[in-house]
Amino acid sequence: MGYKHGAYGERTASQVKSTKQAEENVVYFGTAPINLIRGYDDADLVNVPVRLRNLGDAQAKVGYSDSWDSFTLCEAIDYHFNNANGNVGPIYIVNVLDPDTHRKSTATTKSVAFSNGSGSFVSDTVILDTIAIEDKTEGVDYSIEYDFNSSTVTIKSLIENDQLTGTVTVTYYDVDLTAITESTIIGQHTGSGDYTGIAAVALLYMRENAVPNILAAPGWSEKPAVYRALCSAAQKINGHWDAFVNADIPISYKQSGTTYKVETIAQAITWKTNNAYTSPVSKVAWPMAQYGDKVYHLSTIMTAKMLETDLEHDCIPFESCSNKDIMATDQYFGDSENQGFDQTEANDLNEKGITTLCFWDGAFKLWGPHTAGFTYNGSMDASAIFETNMRMLMYITNGFQLRNGTKIDTPMTPNDRDSIVVSEQAELDALTGVGALIGKPEVLFLENENPESDMINGDFVWHIMATPTPPLKSATAKVTYTDEGFSSFFGEEG
């Protein structure tokens, strides 16, 4: 056994035979238009978790743009906060765009027409802090405003008798989104203590005292290197916490300069296999979802629906996000002639561990309760069958550590050992009471898992046996025709 100091939780291989979490913490990784935030450089907005509560809060803290391909985090902000169904949050975002680094090498020069002391132009790539007018001083001669709804920069004169008139030359720098690559999103933890990209998930607990539960990177998770980084980072965050990953299979991708489409069910299944999108700590989805003129990645929708569903159960993740209504009016395949598929064909994806969306009972729904590690009739650990299996086991291990971490380095007597058994058993019984577990879950302190040599070194192990409640994946009614009813024509009345 390696050196340990702290409270730990581990998922073991399943044995198949005959509580309360304070909050749910979702973390998205990508790019946000912080170039539209005045004083972004002092606001600590790059490679750190930022908590967002609603659309206004998001716009004020990290900006907003409808250019989701460029500013990928805005898709999540929109789906969680800009809808008729109400907010689904809060959420955390980790933005990797640094306007000081990711900017064009030369300034942009724009001729702006002024009338009545006011001029405007449209841009969501402008770094507002770099706007300059020759021989004029911001705050003295002019002010700058930004409208997120129209992506409009407005410059207004501040001196009545010396207003800006006619055509005025304005200079500024633009952010360079092409400088953001897969490696930027993946990031790293350096020996000097810097955290960037996905690696910055470790800062959530250290800075916010929040345990991450769900990770997603819409627009980026369809890249295999990013998917692998997400799944790796989600396990033992800070050496302790386990999170679940929601990711996408692309509807198209580039390879060696050539664009390839993933526009059929067969192609999606092949892509998943060839690129090893099979981690049991993740769900993967295909295609995308269209809602009016908006197009969302299913990883965003799955994450929002997981959060919404968990919040309905005091943040206990025992109900699947599958078969839940979503904001969608169609399946989206990009530039394709595919007209969509029904539930029967959607099941072809499900049996290969791919979640999708399909129309049922008057609405589009997420469809697929499995992890990416599931294959029908395949070989896998039983915990990988359903997303709720994996997420409940994570809930139990994370909860054990949260509850017992303060006891580390206190004396451990046999009574203390029993106290932990009793308290953890109570947690399991409570989870059984709300339907999150079935059977008789049990906490054990086993002699063979606690050799004297380990206990001498202060290392103790409690073994938790638990069966997460399975979802009703299918319901079949067997109906048999009989002729017995005809006897009613001649039966006695009365």
Work out the strand percent: 15-25%
Report how far apart the termini are: 79 Å
What is the helix content? 10-25%
Q: What is the 3D form?
A: globular
Mean pLDDT: 94
What do you see in this structure?
There is one protein chain. The protein is of the alpha+beta class. Among the domains are: 26-97 and 180-384; 108-174, no CATH class. It contains eleven helices and 21 strands. It has helices at 55-62, 73-81, 182-186, 202-208, 224-233, 265-274, 298-311, 343-350, 387-404, 414-433, 452-456, and strands spanning 26-30, 49-52, 91-95, 108-115, 118-122, 132-133, 142-147, 152-157, 166-172, 214-216, 244-248, 252-255, 258-261, 282-285, 288-291, 294-296, 330-332, 354-360, 363-367, 437-444, 463-468. The strands form five sheets. Strands 2-3-1-10-11-14-18-19 form an eight-stranded mixed beta sheet, with helices on both faces. A six-stranded antiparallel beta sheet has the order 6-9-4-5-8-7, with no helix packed on it. A three-stranded antiparallel beta sheet has the order 16-15-17. Strand 4 and strand 5 (118-122) form a beta hairpin. The radius of gyration is 27 Å and the shape is globular. The model is unreliable at 16-22 (pLDDT under 50).
Write a compact overview of the structure shown.
Among the domains are: 26-97 and 180-384; 108-174, no CATH class. Helix content is 23%, strand content 21%. The protein is built from 11 helices and 21 strands.
Topology of this protein?
Elements: E1 26-30, E2 49-52, H1 55-62, H2 73-81, E3 91-95, E4 108-115, E5 118-122, E6 132-133, E7 142-147, E8 152-157, E9 166-172, H3 182-186, H4 202-208, E10 214-216, H5 224-233, E11 244-248, E12 252-255, E13 258-261, H6 265-274, E14 282-285, E15 288-291, E16 294-296, H7 298-311, E17 330-332, H8 343-350, E18 354-360, E19 363-367, H9 387-404, H10 414-433, E20 437-444, H11 452-456, E21 463-468
Parallel strand pairs: 1-3, 1-10, 10-11, 11-14, 14-18
Antiparallel strand pairs: 2-3, 4-5, 4-9, 5-8, 6-9, 7-8, 12-13, 15-16, 15-17, 18-19, 20-21
